[in-house]
Design goal:
The structure is a single chain. This protein is mostly helical and 154 residues long. The chain has one domain: Orthogonal Bundle (TerB-like). It has eight helices and two strands; from the N terminus they run αββααααααα. It has a two-stranded antiparallel sheet with strand order 1-2. α6 crosses α8. The longest helix is centred in the middle third of the chain and has 17 residues.
Length: 154
């Protein structure tokens, strides 16, 4: 996995990360690691959070159940080995246009609301990621409001 992180940080646009037969590109791994970081921020990864993470990644990347599980495990490892969020966000900033970065922030809010509780650490991570991706506070808060309303919260 250290090689995967090196490739994520230093690799090129189309860098691939191989894991047990599944090949996640750097963008997929970076997005998944950020999502995992959000759901783990409060110290507990609930079943509902893990299920929502799986659903979002599978839908976003068109992955099979097996590939989704492998991506989540790779993301968990990458998150645990990362010093900070910079390598992940720089990969995404390089790979994604503004609309795609906004969509990612929306998916991160989906992770925050996955267990029905908004923890201040989760909120702070989305704020930091948004800043690193050059997403302004107004857009970040509007996305939060949209996801909150979609989850039936006032």
């Amino acid at each position: 996995m250290f090689d995967a992180l090196k490739k994520l940080v230093f690799g090129g646009k189309n860098t691939k990360v191989a894991a047990a037969g599944f090949s996640a590109d750097a963008k997929q791994l970076a997005e998944a690691a950020l999502m995992f970081h959000v759901i783990a921020a409060d110290g507990v990864v609930t079943g509902s959070e893990r299920k929502r993470l799986s659903q979002v990644l599978s839908a976003e990347f068109g992955l099979s159940e097996r590939d989704t599980k492998e991506l989540i495990e790779d993301a968990r490892r990458a998150d645990s080995e990362a010093i900070d969020l910079f390598a992940f966000t720089q990969t995404l900033k390089r790979e994604l246009d503004r609309d795609a970065r906004l969509a990612l922030i929306r998916r991160l809010w989906e992770m925050v609301y996955a267990d029905g509780e908004v923890h201040e650490f989760e909120d702070n991570i989305v704020w930091r990621v948004a800043e690193l991706l050059d997403i302004d506070s107004r857009a970040r808060m509007e996305l939060k409001r949209e996801v909150r309303l979609a989850h039936g919260e006032d």
